[in-house]
Design a protein that fits this description.
single chain, 5 helices, Alpha-Beta Plaits, 8 strands, globular
Length: 191
Amino acid sequence: MIYIEFIERDRFMPIEIFHHLGRQSSDWADGAADKLVLQIGRTLRLGPMPSYLVFWEIDDIGRLDEWETYFGSTEARTNRRSQAMHRAMHIQRAGLYDTLFASKSTNFPLYYLEFYRELDIGPEDELPPGFTREGLVFILRRVGWLGPEAKALSVWGCNSYRAVERLSRRSIEGALPMDAGVYKDMGSETL
């Protein structure tokens, strides 16, 4: 399961401070079992707001019970890094997603994301028409209504903007994306 934070930075906060405080890691709390998978920012203003997305792999929705316990604790209230981070960024929304496809590699210079109102995927080995495994990082489907409007999203890793263009122009049967965007690792995005 993937928990995605949809983040916008406070425009009064210098970008350098936002990047410094916003960079997260799996050790945000002692013993955290969560795995930071992606932390990306929209680049060259290609894509929807908010501008930043952080993908956390969690075991299941029960992990949120543990988060609630931690964030209500004295330890959380005295965690200076966590407090500073939450003052530097505005997490506008979060969503929970089932992982329908996941690649072993998530390290690319560019990421192309497509957001879908609907996206059907067959059995584990069967991708939707217009999808290939090459460069595909994730296909995620929102858990019920627990997330923004897009019911599904795909994440593609790209080595160039030409690769992004090829993906964006490819023929897709059935569900068409409602929106798309281009992202880079947080801190390397072009504002």
